[in-house]
Amino acid sequence: MANEPTGSRLVRAVHGLSRLEPDPTYVVALAEDLRRQYGREGLLELYGRFSQGYGGFDALMRRVLWRALTRSCGAGLRVDPGAGFKHPETFEVGNGVFIGSDAYIQGRFDGSCHIGDHVWIGPHSYFDARALVLKDHVGWGPGARVLGSVHTATPVNVPIIETDLAIKPVRVEEWADIGTNAVLMPGVTVGKGAIVGAGAVVTKDVPPFAKAAGVPATIIGWRTDEEVREET
User: Fold this and answer.
1) Cα 189 to the chain's mean position, in Å?
2) How far apart are CA 167 and CA 203, in angstroms?
3) Is residue 65 classed as helix, strand or coil in its secondary structure?
4) Buried-state track 162-174, b at ≥16 Cβ within 10 A, e below 16
């Protein structure tokens, strides 16, 4: 067939190299005006009107409403259809962030969620974001998840979901890359520039520039420029 793939190849990154432009003044002004007029509940209702649309105006209004709802929001935010949230007033969102379709960020009224500059969040991701930090230039694969809390399961004579909830911060340092369908368990830190493989379940901290894979995840190597050159 004429259109069959012909093999692997290298192409330039898109999101990571995209040029950040300041948001137009009308976007900033509209977000402020809507915040004053509607309040939190009204803004959430408005977001529902535009959350699923694929048109340019829907995308614009998602950006405006994230600005209005979050604690802070930088320029160049892109939010695909179906992306949702809980307690966005606890979110701090950096510049040039992309949030893929049907991703869900679940905050807590007394929690905090920090998303750094130029973070890319893939479709169908889930974040228990009650104590979450994603630093600058983090790549988050489609379907990957953060579990930031766990029930204590004691005492044993009551249902587990009635026991206290232990919230443990999850932190992903700058430049790290989290593979498709990976899971980060409560309390872990993924170090700067580390790679977490697809489907890995991270139960312990991952050191900077390490490569981790498996269930549970273990260190399988270390990133080096020499290794990258050999692979390509």
Assistant:
1) 15
2) 15
3) helix
4) eeeeebeebbbbb
Distance CA 138, CA 120 (A): 6
Same structural domain, 82 and 135: yes
Residue 10 lies in a domain: no
Q: Which of 110, 152, 161 is nearest to 131 (CA)?
A: 110
Whether residues 103 and 216 fall in one domain: yes
Domain end, chosen from 11, 41, 69, is at: 69
The values of phi and psi at residue 155, to 5°, are -75, 160
Residue 54 Cα to chain centre, angstroms: 20
Please indicate, yes or no, whether the overall pTM of this predicted structure exceeds 0.70.
yes
CATH number of the domain that 133 lies in?
2.160.10.10
pLDDT digits (tens, 9 = 90+) for 112-150: 999 999 999 999 999 999 999 999 999 999 999 999 999
> Is residue 77 domain-shared with residue 48, that is, in the same domain?
no
* Residue 126 and residue 65 share a domain: no
Number of domains in the chain: 2
Domain boundary among 40, 69, 98: 69
Judgement on whether residues 109 and 222 belong to the same structural domain of the protein: yes
Q: How far apart are CA 54 and CA 105, in angstroms?
A: 20
The CA distance from 104 to 83, in Å, is 6
Question: What does the block give as tokens for 231?
Answer: 């692979």
Q: How deeply is 37 buried, as exposed, middle or buried, from its count of CB atoms within 10 A (0-12, 13-18, 19+)?
A: exposed
Kindly report the average pLDDT of the chain as a whole number: 94
